[in-house]
C-alpha cells in the first residue's frame, strides 16, 4: 500500500464540507429546545428547497451561545420556502416565497 | 405661538435612575475594562463607527451597480467583497447578500427574530423595522404590508422575503428607474433611499420625469 501525500491544499475538517447542495429538497426540523435559537418557530417542520450553500462554514451559534465554539463549524444554507407552505391561507400568488438562512443541524433531507 | 422662549419643557434629566438592563450593561462594561479584556475607549469607538454609517453608503453602492455592469456582477456574487472594494469596511463577521429587484421579482428584507440589518452599508435601522408589526407582517402578508408603504406589486411579479436570522445580512438592489439615462453616479445615488434598499419602496423617479407625466 502506498501512502499518498495530499498536496492540493488544506483538507476540510469533519463537518466543514457542506452536506446539502443547491436544489435539494429539505425539511426544517421540528424540535423545540429550551434557550435562544435562530430558527424561527414559523419555519420549523416546513418543507423547502436549498437555494444555495452559504460560505464560509460558520461556528454553530447555538453552541456558541453556551460558550462552546470549538470544532463546531458547519454551513448555513439559503432555504426557499413557498409562502403557501408557511401559511395555508396565504392569499397572494403561489410563486411568493421566503428565503432564510438555516444552520445544517436544523435540516433533514426529504425524498424529492 | 410660544410667548416666552424660555418656557419649554426641560431636556430629560440624565440623572433619572437607570433601568435593569442599563445597569447590567454598565456593570459588564466596567468588568471588561477592569479585567483588561477591552480598553476604556473601545466601546465608544465602536459607537462612533456605527454612527458613521448611513444609507448614503448603500446608495453609492447601488448607483455604482446601475452604471458599471462588471461591478454589479461582483456585487451580486459577493456583496461584502464588492462593498469593501468601495472602501466600505465590515466591522463584524456578517456576510452580505445583495438581492436584485427585476420586473419579475420584488425583494423585501426583514429580521423576524430581532433587528438584523445591513448596518455596515445602511447604518442603524429605522424604528419600524425593529417593531413586531413589521417583523410579523413582512413574512405573513408582505403584499398588504407593501401596499401600506405605497408599493403595489402586480400579481405576476414574485414577492421574495429574505429573513436574516444569523450571519447573513441583505441589501436590496432596486430597479433603476426609467428616464435616468445619462445621469451621473452621484445624481443616481440621490434617487436611492434607505427604504428602497430595504425593499419597502422602489427607487425614486427623477423629478424631471415626474413633470413630464
Task: Quickly describe the structure.
The complex is a heterodimer of chains A (112) and B (213). Chain A contains two helices and five strands. Chain A is mostly beta strands and 112 residues long.
Describe this structure in words.
- Helices cover 7% and strands 33% of the residues of chain A.
- Chain A is mainly beta and 112 residues long.
- Chain A has a single domain (25-109), classed as SH3 type barrels.
- Chain B is α/β, with parallel strands linked by helices.
- Chain B folds into two domains: 20-50, no CATH class; 54-212, Nitrile hydratase alpha /Thiocyanate hydrolase gamma (Nitrile Hydratase, Chain A, Alpha-Beta Complex), CATH 3.90.330.10.
- The model of chain B has no long low-confidence stretch (mean pLDDT 91).
Sheet-strand content of chain A, in percent, reads 25-35%
Ends distance of chain B: 40 Å
Number of strands of chain A: 5
Compute the gyration radius of chain A: what is it? 17 Å
Gap from first CA to last CA of chain A: 41 Å
What is the third-level CATH name, the topology of chain A?
A: SH3 type barrels
CATH architecture of chain A: Roll
| Low-pLDDT residue intervals, each spanning 5 or more residues of chain A | none
Task: Supply the number of helical segments of chain A.
Answer: 2
What is the structural class of chain B?
A: alpha/beta
Task: Tell me the major beta sheet of chain A.
Answer: 5 strands, antiparallel
H/E element order of chain B: HHHHHEEHHHHEEHHH
Shape of chain A: globular
Domain module count of chain B: 2
| Number of beta-strand segments of chain B | 4
